[in-house]
Amino acid sequence: SFQFEVLKPMVEDGTPGRSLCVVGDDDQTIYTWNGSTTKIFNLLREHCPREAHLVQLVENYRSSRSILQVGHLALMDNTRRIPKELQARAAWADDEEQCPPPLLWECGTPEDQACAIAGEIEDLLGRQHEDGQGNPSALCRHPREIAVLFRCFNFQGKVHRPLVHEFTKRQIPFYVVREGPFWEQAFALDLLAYLRLAAGGTSDDEAFLRAAARPPRRC
Q1: Quick one: which of 73, 163, 173, 219 has the most CB atoms within 10 Å?
Q2: Which stretches of the chain drop beneath a pLDDT of 70?
């Protein structure tokens, strides 16, 4: 690959004391769009079999053991990855009260997924259990104790929309982190710029400059 061809001169330079450190995660695929590939690790080890030393960072402090086990099962059949298994090191990693076993759902559409998540949250907010003294207490006392994480939140700005719609329909209070008000988002400002010009705002320089630049024009 091109990236490996760039690395080769650094490895073959021969300057005393020179060393090269390559950092990466062969379980991540979010950078394949720019040519990143797991083959680079193997090419480097094959090119420098004696010098190359592999250091694996497998201690995990932010996930429960059950979540790591599910992730490992999903990845273990990938023959292109370097074999490894993450180890849970957090003090609460095996506490089933704080970290119940993960649930796996197969949803046909984003709307089905949003409906399943919202339904689970409704159950979670209303579910009761007994404390150590036999007194009923809410498993989750406030919605702020629940979070929905998105891996690709900004992908076309649409990933979280079905969930926002479902929460609104069911009157589940929520807050979207790192998202401004609807009318302050880029696509809304673009549309408003076009509408202002269409309404006769010929002297509206701000609207004209925004409309002229979006979408990008190529000569």
Answers
A1: 163
A2: 1-3, 11, 13-18, 29-31, 33-35, 127-141, 152-157, 178-184, 201, 217-219
Supply 207's token pair. 């609207």
Amino acid at 211: A
Q: Is 188 within 8 Å of 182 (Cβ atoms)?
A: yes
For CA atoms 155, 180, 146, 121, give the dihedral sign. negative
- At 168-189, the pLDDT tens digits run 999 898 888 765 666 667 778 8
CA angle at 113 for the pair 127 and 188, rounded to the nearest 5°: 115
Angle at 98 between CA 97 and CA 101, to 5 degrees: 75
Q: Is the pTM of this model over 0.70?
A: no
